[in-house]
Specification:
Blueprint lengths: L1 H20 L7 H8 L3 E2 H9 L10 H6 L4 E2 L6 H23 L7 H4 L6 E3 L5 E3 H9 L17 H23 L3 H20 L5 H7 L5
Helix pairs in contact: 1-5, 1-9, 5-8, 5-9
Length: 218
Amino acid sequence: MTKTKAVLRWALVTGWWVLVTQWCFGAPIIDRGFRFTGGKCEDAREALFDGTADGADVFTAAACRAAGGRWSGGHDISGHVFLLVLGSFFLLQEVGWPACRAGLLLTTNAAKAGREERCVVMPDGAVKGAGVEAERSSGSGSGAGDEGRSVASLGFGEKFALAVVALCWWMLLMTAIYFHTWFEKLTGLLVAAMAIYPVYILPRWAPALRALIGLPGI
């Protein structure tokens, strides 16, 4: 069941990436936002009058580039910021919390015991630690055997995921320095948060949603 919920979270995050950057019943959300704010494909529009370009060439960034055109005007949501924030947060949540519960990332006594500081709202309205929810899901005795567990070393999968996260943050820094305006980068961050919040934050306070998609490490 835990794996099924993890696949569902992956599908939700990936689905949002598709809608924003690839296809949203036609042009993706980024391209729709660009055109809605006055953007256009300059050279493709001229080619339309000459009959050398198809009408679809003015609707998406990819088609515009394929027709030899260029986007002009409008608000260009930063796809770099969107993808890097969404991808790195996804990996940190899906790999980080289970590793913390297993005592792989932290060296405190709480980490060795498989505890964590996240709080969740229980079905009866009580606010408790996420560890209580994990024990409730897997059986009351599941956490007892972790009390004396020593901190293990990270496996190849965890190390690879953390390396990808570090690379994402480096690329995010380069994007912040060299690409887009600050407002475009802010909107890229906000669009990423539109998937992060309902998938990873809201379930902590909504037991019904948590029962459907779960939380990493629980």
